[in-house]
Amino acid sequence: MSSARQFDDQQLPRSATVAELPPRANNHLQQCRDDDDEQGQDPEDDDPHSHRRRPLPFRQRMKHFTWAWYTVTMSTGGLSVLIFNQPYNFPGLRGIGFAVYITNIVLFAAITAGLVARFALFPGTLKQSATHPRESFFIPTLLLSLATLITSTERYVVSSDNDPKVMVAVQWSFWAYMVVSTIVAVAQYAFVFSRHRLRLEHTMPTWILPIFPVMLTGTIASVIADTQPDIAAVPIIVAGLTCQGLGLSVAGMMYALMAGRLFSAGLPDREHRPGLFMCVGPPAFTALALVGMGNGLPDGLDANFDGVTDALMLRTMSVVAAVFLWALSFWWFGVAAMAVVMAPPRYFHLGWWASVFPNSGFTLATIALGRAMRCQPILDVATGMSAVVAVTYVFVLCHLIRAVWIQDIMYPGRDEDVEDT
Questions:
Q1: Where is the composition biased (Acidic residues) (predicted)?
Q2: Measured by CB atoms within 10 angstroms of the end CB, which terminus of the chain is less buried, N or C?
Q3: 348 secondary structure, DSSP code
Q4: Concatenated DSSP letters of 121-139
Q5: Confidence of residue 33 (pLDDT cuts 50, 70, 90)
Q6: What does the DSSP 8-state code read for residue 7?
Q7: Please, which residues have CB within 8 angstroms of residue 351's CB and are 6 or more apart in sequence?
Q8: Same domain for 143 and 2
Q9: pTM, whole model, 2 decimals?
Q10: Domain identity same for 41 and 75
Q11: d(CA 378, CA 333)
């Protein structure tokens, strides 16, 4: 097999020719192709960008089954929650949402089994994936998938069951998720700071991912607080607000890096521009969480014990803050959409799912604001946004199936572990 490798995958298109590569990459790639010529091989047979690349057996392709596959389940889970929260209902809609919820559970189990198979078949790949400067950033998508499973389970299963044991199980799942996501965020960023030297001009939206699960703690709190007794709901909301603040603050620092990269180096390569939609998520999910946690406060809350009910004031403040954050999400959505329209990607990447999950949060935040302000036009717009998200999900899913079939992904040089191939 050719030792030709893709250089600087964050910047170069998959279809880059030798002339388009920087001198260092150009010299190395040419040397590898010369070696192939000496061995009597056609270098294009192993070029991951060539249509003549040789087919690989499925077992060998499993080596490139990466953590980024969890973007499928976090998007599917986000869609199931979005279906449940639709402002307009019709017969069968809840059944469709439940079917998507069950499908997400099956997909989550299948992807987990696939990763276990990869690590078992190819010893050492677990450590490589956890330390890889690109693939490791997708490890938190596992936690994001779990967050969507918790919230969708609350919507489709727990909300219709007042069993105290079920409520306690939900509480424990929330606290466990909060602890694990916080540990992962601290540990992963500390490791990146100590082991990798990432350049500003290579800043990518995936750098936000390690803090994203912490942020979703607030979203989970906003969903489960309504069904919890007051004595349990208030601590959950306080913890959720704390984690939401931490997540948004760190995401703000990542935004500063992203803006610096956009000003100094321009937009990412066309193949990675759908990832810009990831920037829509943090403010959108924070807006959703603030409105939800405000609604989850006990009606008789008197924080200062002065006889004045504080719940109404806090709910009003949460809506005002959510409007500000929604506007930031809208701006990032416009930037990402324009970037993709100007240069659509040629090849499928699992990063395409960034156009689904963050935009699901954006749409959910729109629905929450429409309900909080009792504004029918906003709910009408949110319904249209929901339809767009559903169509986008089907579009990306169809391209995913096609990409697996024609070996556009799960192939050396075409996945998030590209530097290891």
A1: 34-47
A2: N
A3: -
A4: HSTTHHHHHHH-TTGGGGT
A5: very low
A6: -
A7: 68, 71, 206, 272, 274, 275
A8: no
A9: 0.83
A10: no
A11: 17
Q: What b/e string do you get for 220-232 counting C-beta neighbours within 10 Å, with b at 16 or more? A: bbbbbbebbeeeb
**Spatial separation of the C-alpha atoms in residues 207 and 185, rounded to whole Å:** 11
Q: Contact at 8 Å (CB) between 224 and 170?
A: yes
Buried-exposed string 389-408: b where 16+ CB fall within 10 A, e elsewhere: bbebbeebbebbeebeeebb
Burial of 323 (0-12, 13-18, 19+ CB in 10 A): middle
Identify whether the C-beta of residue 55 lies closer than 8 Å to the C-beta of residue 408.
no
48 and 66 share a domain? no
Class of residue 158 by CB neighbours under 10 A (exposed 0-12, middle 13-18, buried 19+): buried
Residue linked to tokens 């572990």: 417
157 and 198 fall within a common domain: yes
Are 167 and 287 within one domain? yes
3-state DSSP assignment of residue 35: helix
Q: What percent of the chain has pLDDT over 90?
A: 52
Pair 100, 168: CB distance under 8 Å = no
Range 35-63 burial, b when 16+ CB lie within 10 A, else e: ebeeeeeebbebbbbeeebeebeeeebbb
Q: Are residues 21 and 140 in the same domain?
A: no
The DSSP secondary structure of 245-264, one letter per residue, reads HHHHHHHHHHHHHHHHHHHH
Model pLDDT for residues 168-216, shown as the tens digit of each residue: 888 899 999 999 999 999 999 999 998 888 888 888 888 999 999 999 9
pLDDT tens digits along 313-343: 888 888 999 999 999 999 999 999 999 999 9
Note whether 152 and 249 are same-domain residues.
Answer: yes
Based on the domain organization, do 9 and 122 belong to the same domain?
no
pLDDT range class, residue 224, cuts 50, 70, 90: confident
- Which residue range is the domain that position 212 belongs to? 60-420
Count of domains forming the chain: 2
How far is residue 100's CA from residue 156's CA, in Å, rounded to a whole number?
Answer: 11
Rg (the chain; Cα; Å):
23
Read off the CATH number of the domain in which 254 is found. Answer: 1.50.10.150
What is the DSSP-derived secondary structure letter of residue 196?
-
Q: Single out the residue of 237, 331, 337 nearest to residue 284, CA to CA.
A: 331
